Structure to design on (1045 residues):
């Protein structure tokens, strides 16, 4: 009486064991076989984005760009006759949901590639899993370069933007710079930029290096400390709110030198930082990963047309242009793959971009090369300035020295 | 003062671990020991446990990596909630350093492995480190009760996370560190991690069940329900309070080591309020002081989030509202629903009929 | 140096006011309200929207304060009161659920971009000798903080305030002498919501607020309340101010990275050394 269910269970489990061993046995991921997410008339791609939570503004912009691009491509017949099926999952800007979502995209939604996923601190938690599956990650938003076969970075990283900004200040004859950073991945990137670029400008000196607590609206300590050292320029590696507050505080205390933040913190092209900063934003310099600023760039104007028609939030933000460009570049790359859509060919073709870059006009040319450093495909960044109530290009896309 | 009086009255009226209601006036919406069982039904419980275990064992053979991952995560949170529930539910102390002790497990294991300690060994080692830390954190428990203890432990938990940020050479600071994943040879990493998680979860639940359904659990409840009057019980009450802290810290860290294996990359900001809140929700939903509640709570919290995926922008609100609604309707947690049905007049009549037959 | 002190007193006033709001609700309703900063945020955003729509500044301010009080009463009646018989844990969790929901509602209605509540004096500064400038909004924060503390202390000396203390001391006895605990808890929540609205509004007038900012503000509010032992108004107020100033000095002379840790250390020390708060106020309850 008591034993029977037990044996039934054992038998059932044994049967499942025998039937489905392939699910558990490890197979070395070879890129040669037919990849998932591809049918005769469809290609599935996916992303995880912070549509809710503290980074919702950027998440909605990133989503907008992807949708605009996919709609445009599908209206024109898709990629090589295959319509794009876009799967977007929300991670609420929490790390464990980024990890969960990427697993869902790869093993349940069976995407061909993960395109433009966000979550700069959560994404590193997916690299090991990605390596086991071989799924390409095309254009993740601003993580540090894992130097991994599957991962291709398409934006100037925060560190690259910082290096370009340091070069720019050096060119202006500035010798004393100060830094205010957060103790997270933003701060790590800024430290990288300083470590790489300061030795190239021996006349330049880091006079103050302050750490601003994450999420705190209390900036006066860092600002007072920086001002006490009388720098000529200040570089910020903090989130939008902090950048806006620090701008206000620095200007309120009479600081007149240039102030820099990267595209994320500066909200280049949009109002997310300069709006709250008000008058203090005059002269503010921000990094530029995508040319959301200029008004005479035909490629950008084309996107802007489409973005105006987009039904949703943040369609015309810099984030939108960024992911729009990444999806367009992805379509271009897949076209170049021809009939062989295997991951081996994907990686090989992508690594060959150094000889024949993808030129979109909206972002710097994409020129990936072989590992270890080649997957950081875009090594130039621009600088934009906010002046007279609008953004203007201060320096075109330039590679750091 | 009146509250204490109520507690005493309640505790006197219903001996701890014996009655389903009557303890509502105590510091925690108290629950009964679900295993007030006689010999026959305890065999049944054992068989159910084995079947559940076998079914869980089969998961990686039939499901994809995503499902395996979600189930792994659920089990890890269930183990963590087991420890949290021991503290909050069984011993009645609202200690809020649980997320930080969980972090100690994740970091301890990752750092230990980097220094050449085998992963499996780091599980108990990290647990012991966290247990000692939990003891230190629990010391205010000697003087503090209720919300004061909550605030003090919350502050200490945050301080631990701050320390992890500052210990840059060991932990990589705020930028985070990657975790070496241990894996059984011959099977996929996802399945391997899953089996480790399952084995550890099974062991923890088995041991805790034995402890909580025995003298230890009863004493904990007595200490909780008598509140300040345990003065007469003297030092031993105090000792039980601290043991609850240490044990719950140990379990938190064990769960943390597994969490690190699942996440493969950890950073301090993961372990702040954004983790503590779901942990509290899991304890609450499962029912503070129940035995199997932690599994229910963890599954609820994880699965709910996965279902809310489709709600888009509204899901953050939905989460808060569902939580508020749940608390309003069922202040004793989700598992109290089953008990409420069980205690209803209808069920009582049924039971009486059984006896009569 | 002077600038450091003024900045410290300014943020200290916010911590102190929020701490007072927490203590008032704790005293009368026995709830540690984690949603206090979010309540203030909702009220402030209502005010910001009104001001942006052209409503005169002082009317927008008044609307903000009333909104704060109304939210408080609604929360008490709709959510908290019925839970009080179930002990501490559901109450604690309810305020956390409320925090999540209010924050999400603000994000949905007003977005996540930071905002300010410009006052006529925002941006103005008073020059003091030696090239030191002090913002008028800083002075306003400090003065409003002082007024708030005095007003609340006076409130607890009125008959209603005395009844509130009686309720906190002993619910059943209070009922015997004919005090309606329900009415008093509604008043306490109204006062709490009102002060929370003042706090976040002051913050929005001299800095910025967003869905992110309540998270750190509430912790500092709780630190201030802890310094008053959750009962002493004076202790909470002085504690909040001290916390602000300590933080500024730690940031200026040690490192801005450890500011938060120092606040936590303060909580721990106070709780270990003087659980009743570092000023021996009226100890209302045996907790």
């Amino acid at each position: 009486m008591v034993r029977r269910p037990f044996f039934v269970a054992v038998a059932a489990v044994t049967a499942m064991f025998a039937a489905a061993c392939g699910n558990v046995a490890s197979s070395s991921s070879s890129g040669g076989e037919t990849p998932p997410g591809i049918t005769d008339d469809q290609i599935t791609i996916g992303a995880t984005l912070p549509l809710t939570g503290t980074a919702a503004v950027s998440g909605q912009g990133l989503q907008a760009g992807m949708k605009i691009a996919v709609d445009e491509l599908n209206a024109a017949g898709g990629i090589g006759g295959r319509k794009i099926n876009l799967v977007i999952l929300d991670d609420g800007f929490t790390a464990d949901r980024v990890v969960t979502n990427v697993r869902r995209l790869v093993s349940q939604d069976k995407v061909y590639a993960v395109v433009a996923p966000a979550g700069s601190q959560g994404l590193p938690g997916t690299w090991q899993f990605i390596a086991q599956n071989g799924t390409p990650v095309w254009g993740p938003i601003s993580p540090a370069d894992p130097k991994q076969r599957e991962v291709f970075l398409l934006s100037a990283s925060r560190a690259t933007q910082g290096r370009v900004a340091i070069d720019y200040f050096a060119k202006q004859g500035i010798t004393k710079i100060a830094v205010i950073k957060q103790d997270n991945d933003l701060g790590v990137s800024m430290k990288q930029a300083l470590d790489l670029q300061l030795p190239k400008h021996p006349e330049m000196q880091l006079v103050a290096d302050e750490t601003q607590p994450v999420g705190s609206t209390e900036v006066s300590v860092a600002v007072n400390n920086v001002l006490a050292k009388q720098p000529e320029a200040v570089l910020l590696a903090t989130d939008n709110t902090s950048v806006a507050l620090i701008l206000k505080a620095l200007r309120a205390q009479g600081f007149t030198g240039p102030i820099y933040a990267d595209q994320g913190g500066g909200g280049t092209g949009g109002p997310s930082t300069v709006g709250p900063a008000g008058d203090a934003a005059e002269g503010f310099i921000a990094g530029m990963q995508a040319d959301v600023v200029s008004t005479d760039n035909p490629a950008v104007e084309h996107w802007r047309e489409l973005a105006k028609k987009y039904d949703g939030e943040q369609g015309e933000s810099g984030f939108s242009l960024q992911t729009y460009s990444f999806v367009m570049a992805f379509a271009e790359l897949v076209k170049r793959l021809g009939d062989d859509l295997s991951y081996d060919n994907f990686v090989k073709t992508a690594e060959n971009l150094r000889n024949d870059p993808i030129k979109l006009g909206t972002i710097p040319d994409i020129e990936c090369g072989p590992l270890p450093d080649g997957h950081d495909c875009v090594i130039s960044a621009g600088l934009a300035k906010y002046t007279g109530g609008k953004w203007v290009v201060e320096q075109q896309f330039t590679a750091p020295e | 003062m009146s509250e204490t009086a109520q507690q005493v009255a309640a505790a006197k009226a219903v001996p701890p671990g014996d009655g389903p209601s009557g303890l509502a006036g105590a510091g925690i919406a108290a629950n009964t020991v679900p295993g007030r069982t006689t010999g026959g039904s305890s065999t049944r419980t054992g068989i159910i446990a084995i079947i559940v275990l076998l079914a869980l064992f089969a998961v990686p053979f039939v499901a994809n990596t995503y499902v395996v991952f979600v189930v792994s995560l659920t089990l890890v949170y269930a183990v963590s909630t087991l420890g949290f529930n021991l503290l909050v539910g069984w011993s009645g102390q609202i200690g809020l350093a649980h997320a930080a002790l969980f972090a100690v497990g994740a970091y301890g294991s990752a750092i230990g492995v980097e220094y050449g300690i085998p992963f499996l060994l780091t599980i108990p080692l990290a647990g012991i480190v966290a247990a000692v830390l939990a003891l230190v954190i629990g010391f205010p428990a000697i003087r503090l009760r209720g919300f004061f203890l909550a605030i003090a432990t919350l502050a200490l938990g945050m301080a631990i996370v701050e320390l992890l940020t500052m210990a840059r050479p060991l932990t990589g600071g705020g930028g985070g560190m990657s975790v070496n994943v241990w894996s059984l040879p011959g099977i996929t990493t996802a399945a391997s991690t899953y089996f480790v998680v399952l084995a550890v979860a099974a062991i923890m639940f088995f041991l805790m069940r034995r402890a909580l359904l025995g003298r230890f659990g009863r004493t904990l409840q007595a200490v909780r329900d008598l509140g300040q009057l345990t003065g007469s019980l003297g030092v031993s009450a105090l000792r039980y309070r601290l043991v609850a802290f240490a044990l719950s810290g140990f379990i938190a860290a064990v769960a943390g080591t597994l969490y690190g294996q699942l996440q493969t990359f950890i950073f301090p900001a993961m372990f702040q309020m954004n983790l503590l809140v779901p942990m509290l929700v899991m304890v609450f939903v499962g029912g503070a002081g129940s035995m199997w509640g932690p599994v229910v709570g963890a599954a609820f919290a994880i699965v709910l989030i996965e279902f809310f995926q489709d709600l888009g922008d509204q899901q953050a609100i939905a989460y808060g509202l569902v939580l508020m609604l749940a608390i309003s309707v069922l202040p004793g947690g989700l598992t109290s629903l089953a008990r409420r049905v069980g205690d209803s007049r209808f069920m009582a009549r049924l039971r009486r009929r059984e006896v009569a037959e | 140096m002077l600038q450091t002190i003024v900045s410290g007193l300014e943020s200290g006033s916010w911590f102190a006011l929020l701490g007072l709001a927490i203590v008032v609700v704790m005293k009368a309703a026995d709830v540690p309200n984690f949603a206090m900063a979010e309540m203030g945020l909702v009220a402030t955003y209502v005010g910001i929207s009104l001001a942006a729509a052209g409503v005169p500044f002082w009317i927008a301010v008044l609307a903000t304060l009333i909104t704060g009080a109304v939210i408080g009463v609604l929360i008490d009646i709709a959510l908290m009161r019925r839970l009080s018989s179930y002990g501490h844990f559901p109450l604690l969790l309810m305020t956390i659920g409320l925090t999540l929901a209010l924050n999400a509602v603000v994000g949905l209605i007003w977005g996540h971009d930071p905002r300010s509540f410009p006052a006529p004096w925002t941006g103005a500064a008073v020059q003091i000798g030696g090239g030191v400038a002090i913002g008028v909004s800083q002075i306003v924060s400090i003065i409003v903080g002082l007024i708030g503390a005095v007003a609340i202390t006076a409130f607890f000396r009125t008959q209603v305030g005395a009844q509130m203390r009686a309720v906190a001391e002993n619910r059943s006895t209070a009922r015997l002498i004919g005090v309606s605990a329900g009415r008093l808890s509604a008043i306490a929540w109204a006062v709490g919501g009102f002060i929370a609205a003042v706090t976040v509004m002051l913050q929005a007038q001299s800095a910025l607020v967003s869905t992110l900012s309540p998270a750190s503000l509430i912790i500092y509010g709780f630190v201030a309340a802890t310094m008053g032992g959750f009962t002493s108004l004076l202790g909470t107020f002085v504690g909040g101010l001290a916390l602000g100033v300590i933080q500024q000095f730690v940031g200026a002379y040690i490192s801005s990275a450890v500011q938060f840790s120092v606040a936590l250390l303060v909580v721990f020390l106070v709780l270990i050394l003087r659980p009743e708060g570092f000023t021996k106020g009226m100890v209302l309850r045996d907790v």
Q: What stands out?
A: The first strand of chain C starts at residue 125 and ends at 128. Chain C has a mean pLDDT of 82.
